[in-house]
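lol ok so funny story. i was supposed to be doing the assay writeup but got distracted and ended up predicting the structure for this chain instead. priorities right. anyway since i did it might as well share w the group, maybe its usefull for someone
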Amino acid sequence: MIGRTLLAGLAVLAPAPAVAHGFAGSGWLHPLTGPDHMLAMVLVGAWSAQLGGRGLSAVPAAFVAAMAAGALTARAGLVLPGTEAAIAASGVALGVAVALARPVAVPFAATATLVFGWAHGAAHGVEMPAAAGIDYAIGFLVTTAGLHAAGLAGAGLLLDQERGPSTLRVLGTAGALGGLAFLLPVLA
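and the output, tada:
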């Protein structure tokens, strides 16, 4: 079972260009078109499940709030350099957090996700079609929250299994490696 789960996880995380960039479809679909975005968003949910308690809601909420702010500032023309690197680095950092499974203070975890949420939001804001309205932004924020919920639910199910915590740590390692595969080309 662990072998098939790991293989499926690695297949999903295989390096591929971030196809979300330049996507001009609907907002709710946008986060699903970039594997680097999906990886980070699912890992936010998984890390939240590991943290438990207030982390279950505070960490994903911080990401979504920062994502909204990042999108708004990008739409206003302010995009910080290194946005693509921060998006790729988010997969590495969140994967490492899940792999280590160390207890950290929820405010620290929420603050860490703020930085990454901002970068993801800036990318979505830049890619929003010029004629897009608030419904586009609401769409990508709702889908992002859904990806967080999927990561949280999946990790929650694993954490309830005898070997689940170690499986989740292996998947976190795979996520970090997937993030690294996205980060290296950005840094080159």
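Residues 2-12+25-187 form one domain. The CA atoms of residues 10 and 174 lie 6 Å apart.
back to the writeup now i swear
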